[in-house]
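User: I'm putting together notes for a lab meeting next week and I want to include a structural view of one of the chains we've been expressing. I don't have a solved structure, so I'd like a prediction I can at least talk through. The sequence is below, exactly as it appears in our construct file.
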Amino acid sequence: MMTVGVAEDYAAVREILFHPKVFHSRSVVDHVRPEEYRFPAGLYLLARDEEKPIGFFYLSAVNPILYEVHCAFLPEAWGSKTKQAATLGLIWLSLHTSCRMLMALVPAFNKPARAYLERIGGEYQGRIPRGAQKNGRRVPELIFSLEVPE
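Assistant: Thanks for the context. Below is the predicted structure for the 150-residue chain, given as structure tokens.
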């Protein structure tokens, strides 16, 4: 059984984020290094499958109803489990917060993140030209929104 709830195990969050197939040069903008990374303040929701941590959502309130979201999942969870985790995370947000809309910023080069957002119902809203940097080159940052059920 899968569950999503407030992360109390930040070691698990760190292990997920810095897994070599999660935190790698194809998904991370320039100048982000694991040894220098500090987790920002915000709400961390941990997804567990059969009690084993498989991924997390990091949320930061932009205003009372709009939150920015980022996520990371272990490779063994990629696919249907990530979609199930998103559904459970949206339900959790609906029940425990005033959040009714999520915003995700995705560097244009991160195709797996774009595909995930589209798979879970994210809608492309536009782009910020030259909003991210990869290999010294400025690239667009894509903006997605996702409705939180009431």
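A couple of points you could mention at the meeting. The radius of gyration is 15 Å. Strands lie at 2-6, 43-49, 52-61, 66-73, 101-107, 123-134, 137-147.

User: Perfect, that's what I needed.
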